[in-house]
## 1
Amino acid sequence: MQRAVSQLVAEGLVQTRPGRGNFVVIQRASSTVPADLGWQSAVLGERTISAAGLQELLEVPQAGVIPLTIGYLPEDLQPLPQLAAAAARAARRPGVWGRVPSEGLEGLRTWVARDAGGLRAQDVLITSGGQAALATAFRGLAAPGSPVLFESPTYIGALAAARGAGLRPVPVPADSQGVRPDLLAKAFSSSGARLFYCQPTFANPHGATLAVDRREAVLQIVRSAGAFLIEDDPARDLFLDKEPPPPLASQDHEGHIVYV
């Protein structure tokens, strides 16, 4: 039964929710009109890649200091017996000692695509972590010297990744309901930027979630600017008493959003 459920999950037909059970995934009808992605080539243009790294975040902390820039618990707070048992089970699964595809395991890509909503496994690239994904996105979507819009205040690691790619951060004020659409539109117009970074759900450091009535406005502004939006979504599972709003990426059918 476990193997059958695992296979159905990998194929995207069943979704497992811990503590609640297994649920059949209702497949969305695909659009009969193929999306026109031609605008992307014009925006991307020619570029070179900087060799600069994220040195600030790679510095080794002093002895006895627990860095808050990483998501690892100190060893005395880790459930080591349970982790060891889970690792032992995983090590016995078929194919686990084979070469991992550079784009990531098919089952994992399928799960991520389904979790994001409206994506396919071939739309997903597995990286070594969120910071690596941000660095890849910034280097791939904007040429060195280009402006990039940030909701302000914002995550310091994203700023480091953008500066490491040679980009110029341009702040856009946010309030208790997230980034302000009116100021976002003005920033696109005045800066000529073709890239916007934001955290619509529990933004770091101020914690705001982009209001429902602002989401379509933000998407429309990005579309009108012919721009890309990097949606950084590390805190989605921190919603405890209700379902979080769907990712912006689930409403994007024209290739404007890179979902991390």
Note: The beta strands are 14-17, 21-24, 147-152, 168-175, 178-179, 195-198, 228-231, 257-259.
## 2
Amino acid sequence: AAHASRELRPGSGAPAGIRPAFEDERAEGDTTHVDVIDAEGNLFTATPSGGWLQSSPVVPGLGFPLGTRLQQLNLVEGHPNALEPGKRPRTTLTPTLVLRAGGEPHMVFGTQGADSQDQWTLQVFLNVVDFGLSVQEALDAPLFHSTAFPNSFYPHDMEVAGLALEGRIPAATIDTLRSMGHAVTVGGDWEFGQVTAARITPETGLLEAGASPRAMAAYAVGR
């Protein structure tokens, strides 16, 4: 099993006046992700997220948490993603289950990270299937993401041709990308994402799990 979570920094949580039902600051958090493969070979993956209403409070008497993904709609009238009756908001949550040919479950993975989730997890997946890396090697490899599409969250900002790279990507590659017109921002060496993954290989019975070392927020365990 592999698990990741992201703790909120002071000032990054709910807007003024919106607080959890409890005041224990240690209980605050944001998106989490978990991947599990059990002894029978069943695979599970999930990316719970409470949005800005921290802890996604459970509706009294109904037993389910309050969803907050309508915050990803746009309040500009006429916008393709405008808030309207019956509109389904886009979502950044992308827990992924990979099937082999014939529909056999093989791999689960995911991460927190808003609009970068699909980008980081795709890179990890390609590192495994196209470049032959082990699960942990694929998670450790440098990551990047585009910021050139309107952000799902208010104020829905974007950066034309924006591209953010981890600092371990070679300088020559960064220079080439800039010469092609990308607005490159270089982050820390181990900054982007907390992707976790688990994989089963039926031919050998091998179970694998790995966790990104970034932010020291994710872990993998087997028993």
Note: Confidence is low (pLDDT under 50) at residues 6-27.
